Amino acid sequence: MGKIIAIANQKGGVGKTTTAMNLAASLAVLEYRTLVVDADPQANTTSGLGINPREVEMSVYECMVGKAKITDSIVETDIPYLNLLPSHINLVGAEIEMVNISNREEKMRDVLNSVSSEYDFILIDCAPSLGLITVNSLTAANSVLIPVQCEYFALEGLGKLLNTIKIIQKRLNANLEIEGILLTMYDTRLRLSNQVVEEVQVHFKNMVCKTIIPRNVKLSESPSFGVPAIVHDAESKGALAYLNLAKEVADNNKA
After folding, report:
1. Is 77 exposed, middle or buried (0-12, 13-18, 19+ CB in 10 A)?
2. Do 184 and 19 form a contact (C-beta atoms < 8 A)?
3. Single pTM value for the model
4. What is the pLDDT of residues 227-249, one digit of tens each?
5. Cα-based distances in Å from 36 to 46, 84, 136, 163, 207
6. Angle at 70 between CA 101 and CA 239, to 5 degrees
7. Tens digits of per-residue pLDDT, 176-206?
8. How many CB atoms sit inside 10 A of residue 96's CB?
């Protein structure tokens, strides 16, 4: 069975989509069969992997509300070993449509269970909220990777997310673990960045990933070309950092 990792933080702009795209691509480059699930209505992971969200006919939305099979909705990317379950703006409506459905928190789990044996890793890019779709993602996942930017408000909201994870562990998914806290947007020139790294490492110790993702122009540029950084510039600091993260995740899961 593939390891399902939700990439979540209700704070926006912390690097969730950048991490989903680039970690998935790096795992694929290491020849792990990887599926990335775009569970954000903004569909940035979908467009960042070269798929036009407006042309998507069957997305994660149709799968969750029972209008399509996941096997018909998954698309291949240009990267070998990497598939995508795309998103669409319609996903906004899924939360409303699912309000009266029984076991509505478990729809993503049901969708992914049918294909999890076909992949080594399934990564879910969560929306920057703690709404029903994110709860679905955390209920479906084996673990959660939490990107935290190396900035002043880094720890703001992290407590709230950890609290939500505890509630989900108690009520919906007793096996949910924390894959790690991933420090992103690290700028070696800023004393503040170094202070945040120290503070997070002191507070959360072994929960913090060894790999730290730097601020890097190639990471920012690559989505506009519809490719991850490892395709855009494989020797850039950003691409190499995500490759290191992929090795760390694979080692932690003995994949």
Report:
1. buried
2. yes
3. 0.94
4. 999 999 999 999 999 999 999 99
5. 9, 5, 15, 25, 23
6. 115
7. 999 999 999 999 888 888 888 998 899 898 9
8. 9
